[in-house]
Design a protein that fits this description.
CATH topology of the largest domain: Rossmann fold
Shape: globular
CATH superfamily of the largest domain: Glycogen Phosphorylase B
Structural class: alpha/beta
Order of helices and strands: EHEHEHEHEHEHEHEHHEHEHEHEHEHH
CATH architecture of the largest domain: 3-Layer(aba) Sandwich
Number of helices: 15
Bound molecules: uridine-diphosphate-N-acetylglucosamine, uridine-5'-diphosphate
Helix content: 40-55%
CATH class of the largest domain: Alpha Beta
Radius of gyration: 20 Å
Length: 352
């Protein structure tokens, strides 16, 4: 069976990397990897392939740094060419980025069955580009690999049981990656890291593209950083917007994006996570850290229900109040994401 894997953005390298390791265990499977180029800086892309020994992509399309329509459109054109040449038995797409949607559209028009890893997630916020990407991808996929029970329920409520697709609860491939790479965790070099620190990231469009939200978030983090070190590996889109708007936080330890092995070290050694990232909310849980989420909703509602995570939006008072006063659940011994067997479940289902 020939699997064509489509990746392009940072979280997809980690997710597809976990599944790739599983694919290699099966002689009957062949994987061809296409990197769309959505993330192109070396510390947003190359470092993951090097550090984590992910197979080098067979195709690099070089389509990044464009508007949503231009990026998605160009990806569809080039992915179609690759699919026509490679004639895969299945196209595998991950998550909710523009690369995911482009792969799904190209494959569905060629009638190539699609496997969607991280299916069924919903924020119910149709202004998020990710919500549109994941809903459309789910609808044209044959295998819907859901990371959580909530994801399965979401699909059932939307009537997916009436469609020609298989809904499979696989668990979350991010947990496979976190468990596997913990042994290789690497302390970031050239950063003065204090004994106690909070790990933070900010990159979601709903925060970066609304200057008031962005200001509130950075003012809050800067205030917290007077109390405890805040280490923030900065996404290039956020860096650009901060610079354009002369936002210069004085107290936050802002660093370049780090590789995944450094990220795992930071997660493991931090006191708390404050983020708008989807992946990082779960990783906080995997590494037993409380998490304040800088969004108004989350796809990972089981983290809220169990009080491992709280939503603060971009409200300065709320962020500071939650940081100072919220009592989180510190009993992390509960299976929410499959305990690291998701890739195995996915490949077993595909072979069947
Ligand atoms: C994308 C995903 C988002 C995911 C994130 C992971 C979509 C719609 N969004 O957002 O869901 O959480 O990846 O990190 O697919 N840039 C660089 N260098 C890079 C990459 C980006 O400078 O290597 C800058 C460019 O100015 C670029 C901007 O960041 O235009 C946005 O990049 P883009 O890939 O469009 O979206 P992300 O914000 O990274
Ligand atoms: N990540 C990383 N280095 C960084 C920031 C994030 O390795 O500087 C990892 C993070 O640990 C997680 C993944 O990238 O595994 C999540 O990506 P991101 O936050 O960019 O996207 P999202 O999950 O919000 O789509």
């Amino acid at each position: 069976m020939k699997i064509l894997t489509i990746i392009g953005a940072r979280p997809q390298f980690i997710k597809a990397g976990a599944v790739s390791r599983e694919i290699k265990k099966h002689k009957s499977l062949e994987e061809v990897i296409v990197h769309t180029g959505q993330h192109y800086d070396s510390n947003m892309s190359d470092i993951f392939f090097e550090q984590m020994h992910i197979p080098k992509p067979d195709y690099y399309l070089g389509i990044g740094g464009k508007s949503h329509g231009a990026m998605t459109g160009e990806m569809i054109i080039k992915l179609e060419e690759v699919m026509l040449k490679e004639k895969p038995d299945v196209v595998m797409v991950y998550g909710d980025t523009n690369s995911t949607l482009a792969g799904s559209i190209a494959a569905s028009k060629l009638h190539i069955p699609i496997a969607h890893v991280e299916a069924g997630l919903r924020s119910f916020n149709m202004k998020m580009p990710e919500e549109i990407n994941r809903i459309l991808t789910d609808r044209v996929s044959k295998w819907l690999f859901c990371p959580t029970d909530t994801a399965v329920e979401n699909l059932k409520k939307e009537g997916f049981e009436n469609f020609d697709c298989k809904i499979i609860k696989s668990g979350d491939v991010m947990q496979d990656a976190a468990i596997f790479y913990k042994q290789y965790a690497k302390k970031p070099q050239n950063v003065d890291i204090k004994e106690d620190f909070i790990l933070s990231t900010v990159h979601r469009a709903e925060n970066t593209d609304d200057i008031n939200r962005l200001k509130n978030i950075f003012e809050s983090l800067d205030e917290i950083a007077k109390d405890i070190q805040v280490i923030l590996p900065l996404h290039p889109r956020t860096r650009k917007i901060l610079e354009q708007n002369n936002i210069n936080p004085k107290n936050i330890t802002i660093i370049e994006p780090v590789g995944y092995l450094e990220m795992v070290w930071l997660l493991d050694n931090s006191k708390m996570v404050i983020t708008d990232s989807g992946g990082l909310q779960k990783e906080a849980f995997f590494f037993k850290k409380p998490c304040i989420t800088l969004r108004d909703e989350t796809e990972w509602i089981e983290l809220l229900e169990n009080n491992f995570n709280v939503l603060a939006g971009a409200d300065k008072e709320k962020i500071l109040n939650l940081y100072k006063n919220h009592k989180f659940n510190d009993n992390f011994d509960i299976d929410l994401y499959g305990r690291g067997r998701a890739s195995e479940n996915i490949i077993r289902s595909l072979i069947k």
